[in-house]
């Protein structure tokens, strides 16, 4: 797995990256055994931001006893757009949205300890996919590292425990171990101790976790890729959860490996390099050739570097090429997982990047962005090669309007018949005594209408299809078991053009198996010149879909229930008059209740007093969306502050699993008196003035005017006025 790669961007940053200093939160690897042993990562300013916030759903702890698909992501050294935990600015960043084909996701780089950025763990877990980090030793430096790692049984155990601690703390599910170095035969016992102890500690700490061995060094210490499971690597396979077989195997190797593995044949992951370097079938657009052979040989598969589509800029564009490539995988391998499985189920079809960002139908930002943690449940959109204007094209169009986040499903083209239908989700959701409430948002043109149809099955092998539509539609009554007319919900004040529909279904004993979208016309026109099925132009956008047991929205704790703090406050004022503020905002419930919300939208309200002549007029308020957080903290870096600003109010908008968000006026806030802070930078006011300018508890702050810094004794005195909160 020795791929040429560039060093991560962090290496070239000036000044050198200091993880203990406040800065825009990023993900980064651990590069030395000394860092790993010292546990210095946990002292990093960035550590709390790197914790994954989405846990695997219940029932996902153990892998199914069937063929599985592992995907190993290796792209240009890793930590690219995905390193920006609070989001980047590239609307065309790389992402994966075919999670229904994947069982295990590995984040790979050529650093010693590759820690998956939390955005990958969050979106993978949301779709039921396990996430592994990578531990790799290679080249001469790797041999030196291995000598220290394996010097004693105790050292092997200690480093294994350090890796387990990291996985537990950051919320991912295990490790790929890749020892691409020659070892002395005397080191093999401790190598086995390392793997076995890592496997045991991971399993005891994270039920369902995985430790997978890469096919590299043999049981005799020789660096010799076997390309199959055999007696040279099986002793490592026997003490962990699986083996990732090197990708230069021959046609009969999957079958031979399955025979060696016995009843653990699906723990053998035959590697396929999408770049095609000596891989069976040639990879690239022939990746399915290798998958067909692996499937026939009855083992699992490990796809290496599917980002080939993105890195090599396959035509005509990434969205189309990505869907076309994964469609080859789907046709060869088959769909592996279904959702929805539990309630509430919510998707805004966001792929984790885009050109704007919306909340409840109102666009709150038109800046390009990327943040994989924002990715919603991804639909199973059927790929149509070379769509024509005479068909309905179905796609996630990040440039079209969004009801929530930056995604949607856009339907456009020509409606040939009375209706067009396409599958969105393949579910496995058992219904109970309570009815389920389905809500969805639509923006359309002309008489284009969009309904939702649902397929159900029962334990008695009965099936039922129900259509939710906004009006009585007699033309479909014979095609569905039941047609339910939805009721239109009151539209939020700023949700221009969006129509929100809701319908309820009670089917105790049935299981929801499929969700489809139905495109139709509200009032078909019939006349002598126009046949009943004449083609018409069609355009509609599906903004979101929610399925839950209650028709009421989530109840949020009132703003008074929250403690919101500011930390590491830094105010910079240049002699040219420009001013910036950096601050870390933390929040938690005052009663200590550990309520986990999936995300928080962060805003700042800048208030300025309008001055007319000698009179101070009304307050003018400017609201700005800063970003979305998936942990209970957010770092604002170098926020530009107009000189007339009198105060700043940071708003934390709490969002629930069903997609609803708290009203801004009811959301928790943190305020700073900007005028008083400005005064301290110009005249170095007393420490008590500095402290009183900050509303809330302050752990650490620094006031800077170019090279002018408040003396330490002033800060110490100010700390007595505004005592810090521990932690």
Describe it:
The protein has 727 residues and is of the alpha/beta class. The protein folds into three domains: 33-52 and 69-87 and 94-333, TIM Barrel (Alpha-Beta Barrel); 345-524 and 534-548, Jelly Rolls; 559-673, Immunoglobulin-like. It is built from 13 helices and 35 strands. An eight-stranded parallel beta barrel has the order 1-2-4-5-6-7-8-9, surrounded by six helices. Strands 10, 15, 16, 18, 22, 23 and 25 form a seven-stranded antiparallel beta sheet that branches. Strands 17-24-19-20-21 form a five-stranded mixed beta sheet, with no helix packed on it. The protein is globular, with a radius of gyration of 28 Å.
Give a summary of the structure in a few sentences:
With 727 residues, this protein is of the alpha/beta class. It has 3 domains: 279 residues, TIM Barrel, CATH 3.20.20; 195 residues, Galactose-binding domain-like (Jelly Rolls, Sandwich); 115 residues, Immunoglobulin-like (Sandwich).
Average of per-residue pLDDT values: 89
User: What fold name goes in the CATH topology slot of the largest domain?
Assistant: TIM Barrel
Roughly what percent helix?
A: 10-25%
**What can be said about the biggest beta sheet?**
8 strands, parallel, barrel
The oligomerization state is single chain
Strand element count: 35
CATH C-level name of the largest domain: Alpha Beta
Summed up, the helix count is 13
CATH architecture of the largest domain: Alpha-Beta Barrel
Region (Disordered): 1-23
Function: Endoglycosidase that releases N-glycans from glycoproteins by cleaving the beta-1,4-glycosidic bond in the N,N'-diacetylchitobiose core. Involved in the production of high-mannose type N-glycans during plant development and fruit maturation.
Subcellular location: Cytoplasm, Cytosol
GO molecular function, one term: mannosyl-glycoprotein endo-beta-N-acetylglucosaminidase activity
